[in-house]
Specification:
The chain has 356 residues and is of the alpha+beta class. The chain contains 5 helices and 17 strands. The protein folds into 2 domains: 109 residues, Rieske [2Fe-2S] iron-sulphur domain (Rieske Iron-sulfur Protein, 3-layer Sandwich), CATH 2.102.10; 205 residues, Naphthalene 1,2-dioxygenase Alpha Subunit, Chain A, domain 1 (Alpha-Beta Complex), CATH 3.90.380.10. It has a 7-stranded antiparallel beta sheet. A 4-stranded antiparallel beta sheet has the order 5-6-7-8, with no helix packed on it. A 3-stranded antiparallel beta sheet has the order 1-10-9, with no helix packed on it. GO terms for molecular function: 2 iron, 2 sulfur cluster binding; metal ion binding; methyltransferase activity; monooxygenase activity.
């Protein structure tokens, strides 16, 4: 469909969302039935019987296999049909697609493209996930009536924070502070420091800061749609350098965006923190703050989506803060083009001699 990159790892769900029941998930516009095998591994199959198209999620499990609830065709974990009641032969077309999955840190990933290209070494990772000096906490699954590209762009845009989140993640002190953008690496990065300023609401409530602080926002956006926001604060008197952020109260807010349809997405968010490691109430406190902020994003993004669906009378404008989003859209377009075409000139005929 449309603008979906298929050869990529997406978050299918938190590990807690998938059990031994047959459950339907919609990812990149495709319906997928997911469940756990008897050994705990996650199975992901096309959720449509090739016979009369009944969703397999409406069938039942026979051991680790799925039996269609209409005429009893049974499929194993690889998607192969292993039984057609009333006949002994298995038609070659009697199969469903199987999607590779990978599970780590309480997150289930799925590959919706060519299974031969599903390299688990490319699944997103951060060293802080397994570092005992950091605490990891899963948040929610935020359902958005918004195309995933708009959601992702919002997560490489520090400038919106001052206006959309004035009581939680931003305040007026940052409105005119320049945003730096770096677009050469694997991730698009946008960042800025706000020096000697009032702490934002998040750190007033959680970090306990009362005087002015130095604070930072670093936004990392990985294609197709995983974002990491590194933000924090430190007392002004500590005078920390940009590469000394661990000396302050530092938090990574992770956003795993799953495109559902062309106009809906799920943002599964979590956080990793270097403070209050033994505070049992810290996670609930931070969740409350994050939910308020992300509800503010939701209101903006859904309003934008609604307007995008209306007839356009003129082209939208772009301003200085749009560098990161523009490069992101370009990267998505390039990946889409690679998936839409097949390069048959990789080993050119000797009849052609190239001089460049």
């Amino acid at each position: 469909m449309g603008n979906f990159i298929r050869n990529a790892w997406y978050v299918a769900g938190w590990s807690s969302e998938i059990d031994d029941e047959l459950r339907r998930f919609t990812i990149l516009g495709d319906h997928v039935v997911m469940y756990r095998k008897s050994d705990g591994g996650v199975v992901a199959l096309e959720d449509r019987c090739p016979h009369r198209l009944l969703p397999l999620s409406k069938g039942k499990r026979i051991g680790d296999d799925i039996q269609c609830g209409y005429h009893g065709l049974t499929f194993d974990c690889s998607g192969a049909c292993i039984r057609v009641p009333g006949q002994t032969n298995q038609p070659k077309s009697a199969y469903v697609l199987a999607f590779p999955t990978f599970e780590r840190y309480g997150i289930v990933w799925i590959w919706m493209g060519d299974p031969e290209k599903a390299d688990t070494g490319k699944v997103f990772d951060l060293p802080q996930f397994s570092d005992p000096g950091w605490a990891t906490h899963h948040g929610d699954a935020l359902h958005l009536k918004s195309n995933y590209l708009n959601v992702a762009e919002n997560l490489v845009d520090p400038a919106h924070v001052s206006f959309v989140h004035p009581t939680t993640l931003g305040n007026a002190a940052s409105e005119n502070v320049p945003v730096h953008v770096q677009t050469e690496g694997e991730a698009i990065v946008a960042w800025r420091w706000i020096r000697d300023a009032e702490p934002i609401g998040f750190f007033k409530g959680f970090g306990g800061f009362t005087g002015n602080v130095d604070r930072w926002h670093y936004y990392y956006l990985y294609t197709p749609c995983t974002a990491v926001i590194d933000f924090g604060s430190a007392p002004v008197e500590d005078a920390i350098a940009e590469d000394e952020r661990d000396r302050g109260v530092r938090i990574f807010a992770l956003h795993f965006i799953t495109p559902v349809t062309e106009t809906t997405s799920i943002d599964r968010w979590m956080h990793i923190r270097n403070t209050a490691l033994d505070d049992a109430g810290a996670e609930a406190t931070m969740d409350t703050m994050f939910r308020k902020a992300f509800d503010e994003d939701k209101a903006i993004l859904e309003a934008v989506q609604e307007e995008e669906l209306r007839p356009a009378k003129r082209r939208p404008i772009r301003i200085a803060i749009d560098k990161g989003p523009l490069v992101y859209r370009k990267r998505i377009s390039e990946l889409l083009e690679l998936e839409r075409t097949e390069d048959l000139a990789a080993d050119p005929s000797p009849a052609f001699v190239y001089h460049d």
